[in-house]
Write a structure and sequence with these properties.
505 residues; single chain; mainly alpha; Rossmann fold; 22 helices; 6-stranded parallel beta sheet; Arc Repressor Mutant, subunit A
């Protein structure tokens, strides 16, 4: 930024947000000014104010900004100010509503809507924080078509333990993508889940997860039709390209997924591949596994290892189907008849030791989603139970340990934990329920496992959501917050009394 600060405002376009004052200040004050938030299509032009569009996750913008400006005419307790303080980004805000309570002592307050007052505040902030204001902020390029371009990896804490050779590969892979756009990193290449995670962790990337929306489905279908029209492909030829790509079709195959991922714009290339294949899985050969099929699967595994997508393509079946059949039918049968009934304490202890040892060997968390169950199954010795049984048992053991620990409540307390869940989901500022990042909802003082949080969210939707839930996540959360009883109401309902009645003496 060469001494010129990057001044950021995160707000929707509305009269009370002071966008007109912000645009005037951007025209006269030094630095590069940017606006992130919905409703920018109603503005004819931003002038000196860069209109950066809407972002599902504003954290990367806060990390890149030198100062956050809040010119609102009124605010209660702005969540974005709290997020900026958590990111270490200085704040300049108008002295209205609840902003003084948040900013006073840690930022600068501005009186009135005079543009010069913002210039003076930025000059004062410059003295407090010499440029660049925020030393942790990586430089950005504002003309990127998607959220941001980072020229160097952002320093983030490591959440996964890697072996030295894995760490070396990760560092090399991350360094190769320095200076690339969001599209180049996420949408153009079908990286594996591990490499996607490396990019997400290093560059603070984000994308939609969970169920696809109707709009995403429509964009994907339209992209498929356009691709077929452009390359003059029939539906049969398209299915052949998707499932049984010939060596001479490699470039066309990659172009297909890149085209769809860029058209959808909200999902990584890898996720787009998996979803499109799921949409068109009816073309795969399914049904009974013949001895010839088993022999072909065994040969493919011996040659390709556990590259299930390639194995599925060779056999004309889904990769997940091949993986499940290999693990549950072939491997389990080789080990002999599996034990039945409840687990013996010795079995539980053996499972615990093996899971911990294998996780330490491959560098993953024992309570994570992707445990090396094939390796665990092999290490357990003769006659182990099926992988699906072992996986369910391990999750049950983890849940039991959490329930019995002093750090975690023994059971989900409906009124309190339901409201905590709603507040934490609202704090993520997501557009729809499909965008909720459940793995980020837990905290040291609220240590419920991921499966428990998801379960109670589904239960809450089933019991409390209206038959036709609103499309907006904020409206849905408002409805649920009204319908989830308070602690006092919950006690009444549990005792058999209805709210509004008094107990008989």
């Amino acid at each position: 930024m060469s001494g010129a600060p990057f001044v950021l405002t995160i707000a929707r376009v509305a009269p009370q947000k002071g966008i007109d004052v912000l645009a005037a200040a951007a025209a006269s004050a030094p630095g590069t000014w940017g606006l992130v938030g919905p409703g920018q299509e109603t503005l004819t032009t931003g002038g000196a104010l860069h209109l950066l569009g809407e972002a599902a996750d504003v954290t990367p913008w806060l990390l890149a900004a030198d100062v956050l400006v809040v010119p609102s005419e009124w605010e209660a307790r702005a969540l974005v100010v709290q997020e900026a303080m958590a990111a270490g980004t200085p704040v300049v805000a108008r002295r209205v509503g609840g902003l003084p309570d948040l900013v006073d002592g840690v930022g600068l307050l501005v009186d009135g809507d005079d543009v010069s007052s913002y210039e003076q505040a930025l000059a004062a902030m410059r003295e407090l924080h010499p440029p660049p204001f925020d030393q942790h902020a990586p430089p950005i390029v504002l003309d990127a078509s998607l959220p941001f371009v980072l020229e160097a990896p952002a320093p983030t804490p490591r959440t996964r333990k890697l072996r030295p050779e894995q760490e070396k590969a990760r560092a090399s892979f991350v360094a190769q993508h320095a200076g690339q756009t969001y599209e180049q990193m996420v949408l153009e290449h079908a990286y594996s889940s591990d490499r996607l995670y490396w990019l997400k962790e290093a560059y603070q990337l984000s994308w939609r997860t969970g169920r696809w929306s109707a709009d995403e489905e429509d964009r994907a279908t339209a992209a498929l039709d356009k691709f077929c029209e452009h390359h003059q492909l029939s539906q049969a030829a398209l299915d052949e390209l998707i499932w049984h790509r010939r060596p001479d079709q490699k470039q066309l195959h990659e172009e297909l997924w890149k085209h769809i991922a860029l058209s959808v714009g909200t999902r990584p290339n890898y996720a787009v591949r998996m979803h499109i294949k799921s949409m068109r899985k009816d073309v795969l050969r399914g049904g009974h596994w013949t001895p010839e099929d088993v022999a072909a699967l065994t040969s493919a595994v011996a040659e390709l290892g556990h590259q299930w997508e390639k194995i599925g393509t060779r056999l004309g079946r889904s990769g997940n189907v091949c993986k499940h059949f290999w693990r549950e039918q072939i491997q389990s049968r080789k080990a002999g008849p599996a034990p039945q009934g409840a687990f013996h304490p010795d079995e539980e202890e053996a499972l615990r030791r093996t899971v911990l040892a294998c996780c330490a060997e491959v560098g993953c968390a024992p309570d994570g989603p992707n445990l090396p169950w094939t390796l665990i199954h092999e290490r357990l010795g003769p006659s182990p139970r099926r992988i699906s049984v072992l996986s369910r048992k391990w999750r049950g053991m983890l849940s039991a340990e959490r329930r019995s620990s002093d750090e975690q409540n023994a059971r989900w307390y409906a009124p309190r934990d339901d409201h905590i869940l709603l507040r934490r989901i609202r704090a993520q500022r997501k557009a729809s329920a499909a965008d909720i990042e459940f793995d980020k909802l837990a905290s040291p003082d609220w240590q419920w496992p991921l499966d428990v949080i998801k379960k109670h969210w589904v239960v809450m939707l089933r019991k409390r959501a209206p038959p036709d839930p609103p499309a907006s996540l904020d409206e849905l959360l408002d409805t649920l917050a009204r319908r989830v009883p308070s602690a006092d109401q919950y006690k009444m309902l549990a005792s058999g009394r209805r709210p509004g009645t008094t107990a008989s003496r």
